[in-house]
Amino acid sequence: MSETWTFVCTTAELLPGEMKVAFDEVTGTPIAVFNLDGMFYALEDQCTHEDFELSAGHFDAASGQVECVLHGAKFDVREGTALCAPAYEPVAKFPVKVEDGAVFTRDDR
């Protein structure tokens, strides 16, 4: 578990409907950070169906879902919940904090 917060970007660099990937400074875990209507959410950047990065897929800000480009599995960016086959397991969700216009996340497992 990492106690160290990893800088992702400034809030101006991650507008509503956008996502960015950061790598946890301690664990090296790839983390996708989503701006959903001004709220920030972070998920492990790895589909639970097959080892493939979610950030390569489509983030649908209207529904709050990210779709894995490999086989079409969809996940709720707020909770990491798997929404359809072929994925059945949720994606790991990580904390996000915003301080002084900067977005941070960390692998808290």
TrEMBL record:
<dbReference type="GO" id="GO:0046872">
    <property type="term" value="F:metal ion binding"/>
</dbReference>
<dbReference type="InterPro" id="IPR017941">
    <property type="entry name" value="Rieske_2Fe-2S"/>
</dbReference>
<keyword id="KW-0001">2Fe-2S</keyword>
<keyword id="KW-0408">Iron</keyword>
<keyword id="KW-0479">Metal-binding</keyword>
<dbReference type="Pfam" id="PF00355">
    <property type="entry name" value="Rieske"/>
</dbReference>
<protein>
    <submittedName>
        <fullName>Non-heme iron oxygenase ferredoxin subunit</fullName>
    </submittedName>
</protein>
<feature type="domain" description="Rieske">
    <location>
        <begin position="6"/>
        <end position="105"/>
    </location>
</feature>
<dbReference type="GO" id="GO:0051537">
    <property type="term" value="F:2 iron, 2 sulfur cluster binding"/>
</dbReference>
<keyword id="KW-0411">Iron-sulfur</keyword>
<dbReference type="InterPro" id="IPR036922">
    <property type="entry name" value="Rieske_2Fe-2S_sf"/>
</dbReference>
